[in-house]
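$ run holo --ligand "adenosine-5'-triphosphate" --emit tokens
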Amino acid sequence: MIEAYGLTKRYGAKTAVYNLSFQVRPGTVTGFLGPNGSGKSTTMRMILGLDDPTAGRVTIGGHPYRRLPNAPRQVGALLDAKAVHGGRSARSHLLSLAQLSGIPARRVDEVLDVVGLKQVARKRSKGFSLGMGQRLGIAAALLGDPQVLLFDEPVNGLDPEGILWVRNLMKQLASEGRTVFVSSHLMSEMALTAEHLIVIGRGQLMADTSVKQFIAQNSVGFARVRTPEGEPEQREKLQSAVKEAGGQVQQEEDGAMRVSGLPLPQISDLAHSADVRLWELSPHQASLEEAYMRLTQGAVDYRSSTDQRAGLQMQPAAQPGVPAGPQGPPPVPGAPGGPVGWGAPQPGAPLQGGPHAGAPGFGPAPAYGPAPGAVPGAAPGVPGEQPGPYGAAQAPAAGQVWHTPPQQPPAQQPPQPQPAQAPQPVPAAQPDSAPQPAPAARPEPSDDASRSDSSEDDAR
Ligand SMILES: Nc1ncnc2c1ncn2[C@@H]1O[C@H](COP(=O)(O)OP(=O)(O)OP(=O)(O)O)[C@@H](O)[C@H]1O
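-- output --
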């Protein structure tokens, strides 16, 4: 289990991670999501002891990474697949890692087989494609047969077959009772791979919940309704009845209506009472991507000026000490004055009070409200009224964090975060700092296999 308490990281004036508290439990794949620059890699580096937190702490199995006995056999990680000496073969790279951790050489051949690199095991890695490099990074993570695994963008560059393989691998590792923490920007993939999600925006926790609840909490369910073509009066009658009953109607491009705010049976009854025939009445639920976009759109720092959603971004209300621009505090999606959600029932239509307002919807769960078990408010161990990193007091139950209560409460209270510091706005194009080496990157090997590298052919 990975446990973070009040984890904060500042780089000078830049607050990369602020007061993060979460647990990553064994037995499930936990997805780690957040827009570019939101602090995912920084968090992973702190988990792996590659960066020191400015405040707070993070442990693996109760110990900070650096105090874990024989950490490489307990924790495996893929952070930067490019952190490999290109002149070495895949096999000698892995052998060097194995030697340093007291892992038998036969395990190297096992993991090369597992990741599908057996055929190119003796080729120099500098000729590897992006996907082959990812596979080698995954092999390094698996080397110690660890109980805890962290993967930063593991499917980056993989072909569809490779993506499917990674998905199944993650699930299998979790089903074996391991802790699997994986970041990705591919929402469709996360929806298929992860059961639980931790979502951050601008370094702060935005959601800690199951995928199912996350979608329910951050999306609007709707019904597609179609009345007979060429009979506009039928459509108008139903539209009036739906609006009278409190539903919202949006026209779909293909002539159907998108009805939100009413359960399907009620729409059917309304149609029956109005003597309207239906050609279609079907339920629709937003995808993880839609739900994610809805939650995080206000926390996106880097956005194309041609992105239509740019115009939908919430302009945070002016608050003393809160800088405007990309460093502003994460807004609350759906909050009064907040953004019109992507995937919202209709542009300009009221959002039924936001994600926590519990508007009626179709189906068993409210279409746009807190799902059972979801606890809006602060994360465990996060004091309710901390000053935010942007100098503004944060409302404890303003819907910034959706959290599923942990099964085991943290044994210790988190340390108090340091006084808030308003970060300076940075130019949008500011690059990240120098890349950190992945934990897998190690010094030169001294084994036979590495000596034989010189006679190995280039892969390309
Ligand atoms: N060593 C560093 N020095 C200064 N700033 C840093 C450093 N490392 C990260 N940052 C900044 O911290 C913020 C978080 O970066 P991080 O790489 O953790 O985000 P991320 O969520 O992993 O982004 P992405 O999805 O694009 O990989 C960014 O604004 C980044 O520029």
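-- notes --
Residues 11, 14, 16, 34, 36-42, 432-433 surround adenosine-5'-triphosphate (CB under 6 Å).
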